[in-house]
Write a structure and sequence with these properties.
- Keywords: Membrane, Transmembrane, Transmembrane helix.
- By secondary structure, the chain is α/β, with parallel strands linked by helices.
- It folds into two domains: 201 residues, Spore Coat Polysaccharide Biosynthesis Protein SpsA, Chain A; 72 residues.
- 50% of the residues lie in helices and 16% in strands.
- The chain has ten helices and eight strands.
- The chain has an eight-stranded mixed sheet, with helices on both faces.
- Helix 2 links the parallel strand 2 and strand 3.
- Helix 5 packs parallel to helix 8.
- It is elongated and about 90 Å long.
- The site of uridine-5'-diphosphate has 16 residues, from strand 1 and helix 3.
């Protein structure tokens, strides 16, 4: 059995060599055939030269792809999954936040017949605000979206060949991989581990990116937000009807008075805002259709290690 490690790297020169050493030490102790598939996601620092060095030092077990620009973590992972040749694939961050010591445990669980072995992290190394927001978000998402997302469950997981083939066969351009992992299903098992702080370098996530990622998650899987918009519109229209009837009734009984300036302004501004949100929502779905209809590849490869047997030029 052969194990592939898929490692997306964006500006990770500070930590990549240390990562490589630690992972090899662990894999060496496991007596399993393995390959490391690094994907340089258009790094602007010395990540690519480091990867070339690693590939030279360990030619039979190292492969790397370098994408033509920074496409984002999701496309980088997809590139790695497409390039991986193993019977099982583990996706790991390059910053050592995913402890390499867990590889053995994941392999063990895979050998028991599980197609997805998920490592769920505690949030010890994270900022408190981010933790709180994440918790709230997952609670909201799970009431809205068909696929189940769990807090702390990320990309760190082992996938069987079957699961990898299923994932790679999903053609959509907008990839929200947390949801895709959950969507493909298969026999899944989850275990917990303590989160480690980043070894070096810094996180690429800013709050705005997290918010955008969150919106992606909400609308990537179904049209339920549009349905919610219909319900909101219906409720508001019913309320307006009731209110009109009440005003007419009151006028018939007590004559016409004309207060309510603030009420009017509040209603106009409030409804205007709501309409914009809903238009934005519709626009968001149309935008997705637009992107999907272009059928662009997910990523472009500018350089690949010589050892790579199948040299993917682009993601289909
Ligand atoms: N990453 C990537 N492309 C990007 C951003 C991140 O390949 O555009 C990689 C990064 O090099 C790291 C992993 O994705 O290996 C996780 O990134 P990061 O540590 O910044 O995220 P966090 O752990 O804070 O969620
Ligand atoms: Mg990290």
């Amino acid at each position: 059995m052969k194990l592939s490690l898929v490692v997306p790297c964006y500006n990770e020169e500070a930590v990549i060599s240390r990562f490589d050493d630690q992972v090899r030490a662990v894999l060496g102790g496991l007596a399993v055939e393995y390959e490391l598939c690094y994907v340089d996601d258009g790094s602007a620092d010395g990540t690519l030269p480091r990867l070339r060095e690693l590939a030279q030092r360990h030619p039979s077990t190292t492969r790397y792809l370098s994408l033509s620009r920074n496409f984002g973590k999701e496309p980088a992972i997809l590139a790695g999954l497409k390039a991986a040749t193993g019977d099982a694939v583990i996706i790991m961050d390059a910053d050592l936040q995913h402890p390499p010591e867990l590889i053995g445990k994941m392999l063990g669980l895979h050998r028991l017949g599980h197609d997805q072995v998920i490592a769920r992290r505690s949030r010890d190394g994270d900022k408190r605000l981010r933790t709180a927001l994440s918790r709230f978000y997952y609670r909201a998402v799970n009431t809205w979206v068909d696929v189940e997302l769990t807090d702390g469950v990320g990309d760190f997981r082992l996938l069987s060949r079957t699961a990898v083939d299923a994932l790679v066969s999903l053609p959509e351009y907008n990839r929200f991989s947390k949801g895709l992992f959950s969507w493909i299903g298969f026999d899944t098992v989850t275990f917990d581990y303590r989160n480690a702080a980043r070894e070096a370098g810094e996180t690429k996530w800013r709050l705005s990116m997290l918010v955008n990622y969150g919106i992606d998650g909400l609308i990537s899987f179904n049209c339920r937000p549009l349905r919610a918009a219909i319900y909101a519109g219906l409720s508001l229209a019913s309320l307006a009807t009731l209110y009109t009837l009440w005003v007419i009734g009151a006028a018939a009984v007590g004559g016409i008075t004309a207060p309510g300036y603030v009420t009017l302004v509040a209603i106009i501004v409030g409804l205007g805002g709501l309409q914009m949100v809903m238009l934005g929502l519709i626009g968001e779905y149309i935008g997705r259709i637009y992107y999907e209809s272009k059928r662009r590849p997910h990523f472009l490869v500018k350089e690949a290690s010589a050892t790579a047997p199948a040299r993917p030029r682009s993601g289909g």
